[in-house]
Amino acid sequence: MAGNTGHESMTDYLEKFAAQREIGERISVFAESLLTEQSPELRILEKKALEEGVPIIRPHTRGLIQCLLEMLAPRRILEIGTAVGYSALVMYTYAPEACEIITIERDEKRAAEARLNFDRFGAERITLLEGDAAAILPELEGTFDLIFMDAAKGQYIRFLPEVIRLLPEGGVLLSDNVLKEGEILESKFSVTRRNRTIHKRMREYLAEVSEDPRLRTILLETGDGAALSVRRRSREETIETGDLRR
User: Fold this and answer.
1) What structural domains does the chain harbor?
2) C-alpha count within 13 angstroms, C-beta hemisphere, residue 89
């Protein structure tokens, strides 16, 4: 786990992060071996997705989400990138019973499969919106206590302004797979030409969430890397609650 001190560039930060990566992977394997809590239904869905090559959240990321759900007790959750619905169902299973979940998926085939999985689980509190998140996000109203970003990696930076709009003070944004199997740590000249745009955009995204004064962000070695961001509370609210720590 590493945090940006605010006194170094994103390049310096990522280089230091890379030096810790090897031992971090060993720790992750050990930590994932300790994760046991998952319903039989979720295990079946996870096994099926892995066998079919569908990308789903890794066990350590699932554990992180479960911890966040216990901490936040969210009333509303937004997920960007449904795939076959596994992560949405993890949140549905472990979130408070009254929690509303909205999830967005642009791939027609995966959206159809996700709907079938939601039906099998009887997950009536999950609403699936099919289409491009860039078009859907501006239409959403209200705020979400937890936003989980797990869509096309090159689009994270495109979605960010609307995501921040939908995040209340104290709300959490979890951005998954931000290290791209460690590729994000490399120089752009070490990345294949076809992946350079994604590489550039993801670096821009990490810099943005780290430097935006509205957010407090930490980069985690969870799964394939996750950025955990909290919408900072206003100075006025901090004074009212008596918490003057900055």
Assistant:
1) 2-241 (3.40.50.150)
2) 25
Q: Is the separation of the CB atoms in 175 and 151 below 8 Å?
A: no
N residues, the chain: 246
Q: What letter does residue 53 receive in the DSSP assignment?
A: T
CA angle 53, 55, 59 (to 5 degrees): 110
User: 88-106: buried (b, 16+ CB within 10 Å) or exposed (e) per residue?
Assistant: bbbbbebbeeebebbbbbb
Lookup: tokens for 86: 């596994």
Assess contact for 145 and 74: CB atoms under 8 A: yes
- Are 232 and 215 in contact, with CB atoms under 8 Å apart? yes
Considering only residues 136 and 39, tell me which one the structure prediction assigns the higher pLDDT.
Answer: 136
Q: Say if residues 235 and 220 touch (Cβ distance below 8 Å).
A: no
Can you tell me the distance from the alpha carbon of 47 to that of 86, in angstroms, rounded to the nearest whole number? 11
d(C-alpha 179, C-alpha 181), whole Å = 6
In this predicted model, what pLDDT tens digit does every residue of 41-77 receive, in sequence order?
Answer: 999 999 999 999 998 998 889 999 999 999 999 999 9
If you average pLDDT over residues 130-137, what whole number do you get?
A: 97
